[in-house]
Design goal:
The chain is mainly α. Helix content is 82%, strand content 0%. Helix 4 crosses helix 5 (98-120).
């Protein structure tokens, strides 16, 4: 009965949030259309497929979630932390400010604490649910950053080849960047589009490249930026330099794949060890529902559950640190 009540509360909250977002969505779309017109950016080609085209339902849900967070964070200045969440949002490719992401973490903590508190009917459970909501938000952010960095690394070799060929054909470096932004998909196409926008607004090209290097946080791209900055100061054959860097990047990607294959067993072991307690608890709750009941009703049992979850997280983190080898 408690689970049903908790689910109804969550469903009602989501419906209210959806109604608020849907009522103002048309106004925001018109504003975005005006900004796109002012920026004079080239529209995506018909052959280019974006994430919104491939997964419209998922993209729409994500857009609604981002809109809700932005609405809630309008009158909030955020917390001043050591972590630059504005930069983190750029690295993840999320259209949020740092304070808006902090509001999203707070919202996840409230929802997690409410859901677990209604299920367990315990203050300790509410605290554990709030911590789980915060952890979920940070995990999603890190996952988005890693996925975007991986996609960027996979596109980097093609980008270098395209720029090198464009320079040989007589294009300037800025024209080559515009071609990459027009022809290649995200994330690398979007990042080079940011360089073009920044340059049109008065930011020097060198500074725009350094800002992009901070956003993508890629060692391979740092080589490209360093080579371009040195060439712009002392001269040289940039196309030949980019060809050499392209070969280096391809070799580094090959080494990363070999390391990933060699550490596959360790990563699989970590996933199995992390999922085993949850699977075993699910089986026991079906076979003998009363066997795990003290863990939910007794204070000592609830403390044991929270401690087990914390140890699970620490163990999974340690295994990941062991098998994730930087190349």
């Amino acid at each position: 009965m408690r689970i049903f009540i908790a689910m109804m509360v969550m469903l009602g909250s989501l419906l209210i949030c959806y109604a608020v977002i849907h009522g103002r969505q048309q106004k925001e779309k018109r504003l975005v259309a005006r900004l796109e017109t002012i920026s004079h950016l080239d529209r995506p080609q018909a052959g280019r497929r974006s994430a919104h085209t491939l997964q419209p339902t998922k993209a729409s849900m994500q857009e609604h979630a981002f809109t809700l967070v932005r609405r809630l964070a309008q009158n909030w200045n955020g917390l001043h932390l050591k972590v630059d969440y504005d930069l983190k949002m750029q690295q993840a490719g999320w259209p949020l400010l740092g304070k808006e992401f902090q509001m999203g973490l707070l919202l996840l903590a409230v929802l997690g604490g409410l859901l677990v508190g209604l299920i367990l009917w315990s203050p300790l459970g509410s605290l554990a649910g709030a911590a789980g909501g915060l952890l979920l938000g940070l995990i999603l952010m890190n996952f988005a950053i890693q996925r975007r960095q991986k996609a960027f690394a996979n596109q980097l070799g093609d980008m270098l080849t395209m720029v090198s060929n464009a320079l040989r054909a007589g294009f300037s470096f800025m024209q080559a960047i515009e071609m990459v932004a027009r022809e290649m998909d995200d994330p690398i196409g979007g990042e080079f589009g940011e360089i073009i926008r920044a340059n049109r607004l008065g930011t020097p090209l060198d500074k725009a490249l350094e800002q992009m290097s901070q956003r993508v946080n890629s060692t391979d791209f740092n080589l490209v930026v360093t080579a371009v900055l040195i060439q712009r100061q002392v001269g040289g054959n940039l196309s030949q330099i980019l060809d050499t860097i392209s070969e280096t990047v391809a070799e580094r990607i090959r080494m990363r794949r070999e390391v990933k294959a060699l550490t596959a067993q360790g990563r699989a072991s970590g996933a199995v060890l992390a999922a085993l307690p949850l699977g075993l608890a699910g089986i026991l709750s079906i076979v003998n529902p009363g066997y795990l009941q003290p863990l939910m009703t007794e204070d000592l049992g609830q403390m044991a559950v929270v401690g087990a979850i914390i140890l699970e997280i620490i163990g999974f983190w340690v295994i990941n640190r062991i098998v994730n080898i930087e190349v």
